[in-house]
Amino acid sequence: MEKLYEGKAKILYPTADPDVLLTVFKDDATAFNAQKKGQIQGKGAINCKISAALFGWLESLGVPTHFIDCPDANQMRVKAVTIIPLEVVVRNIAAGSLCKQTGLTEGMPLPFPLVEFYLKDDALGDPLLTWERALVLNFTDEAGLTELKRLALLINGHLQDFFSQCDITLVDFKLEFGNYQGKIILADEISPDTCRLWDNQESDPQARVLDKDRFRRDLGQIESAYQTVESRVLDQVRQIQS
């Protein structure tokens, strides 16, 4: 099949149904706006399984997503949404760029979940946007931005509870949304590629990292960290469903 789109972590293909796309998750890994590149063995299948499990669980709680099903280990059929080119980041604990840009100490709990909008544009370095700049870009109106923030906070509350049951702290994460049949719904993925996750069973600041920071910071044992998240997430979903 001819590709519709290829990004850093996924490839999109058309299907016989124009309302359905096939997403193939890749093992490719990038960091620092693709300045650092590599591969994480099995990452595509792991991220696909984690995302499918979390999308399905969120759907059961009333959160609309693009997820349909998984025809193969690293493949997901999704609704053909029109992506809103804004990355929505939710932060619960100070880490990453927030610390670099503000001087906050890594690991400091924030007084409230911080919702940020970034322009989804690699050429511009995915810059942080003010609310007004997001409106000027006109990818959505004020009601749309308000809905993005509402959904992001709703999802954050659900995911914090979920990961807590997995003995994992949800530090921060990135979401993407799309328009589908007049509604804004959750798209893209939820995985160790898009979340900063710390293992509550580890006290060492490096050993506790269960996400792509292991690749960014050359911490090693990347595959085993992703596998740990996969195992705990799938176990927790099975417990919820039983």
What is the CATH architecture descriptor of the largest domain? Answer: 2-Layer Sandwich
Q: What is the number of helical segments per DSSP (H or I, 4+ residues)?
A: 6
Percentage of residues in strands = 25-35%
CATH superfamily of the largest domain, called what? ATP-grasp fold, B domain
Compute the number of structural domains: 2
User: Which value, in Å, is the CA radius of gyration?
Assistant: 17 Å
Largest sheet: number of strands, sense, barrel closure:
7 strands, antiparallel
**Tell me, what's the shape?**
globular
CATH-derived topology of the largest domain: D-amino Acid Aminotransferase, Chain A, domain 1
Distance between the termini: 38 Å
State the total count of DSSP E strands: 14
The residue ranges in which pLDDT falls below 50 over 5 or more consecutive positions are none
Report the mean per-residue pLDDT as an integer.
96
How would you portray this structure in words?
By secondary structure, this protein is an alpha+beta fold. It has two domains: 5-79, Phosphorylase Kinase, domain 1, CATH 3.30.200; 82-221, 2-Layer Sandwich (D-amino Acid Aminotransferase, Chain A, domain 1). 33% of the residues lie in helices and 32% in strands. The protein has six helices and 14 strands. The protein has helices at residues 43-60, 97-102, 131-137, 142-165, 213-216, 222-241, and strands at residues 5-6, 10-14, 20-25, 28-31, 36-39, 67-72, 75-79, 82-83, 86-93, 109-119, 128-129, 168-180, 183-187, 195-199. Strands 8, 9, 10, 11, 12, 13 and 14 form a seven-stranded antiparallel β-sheet that branches. A hairpin with a 2-residue loop joins strand 12 (168-180) and strand 13. Helix 1 packs parallel to helix 6. The chain is globular.
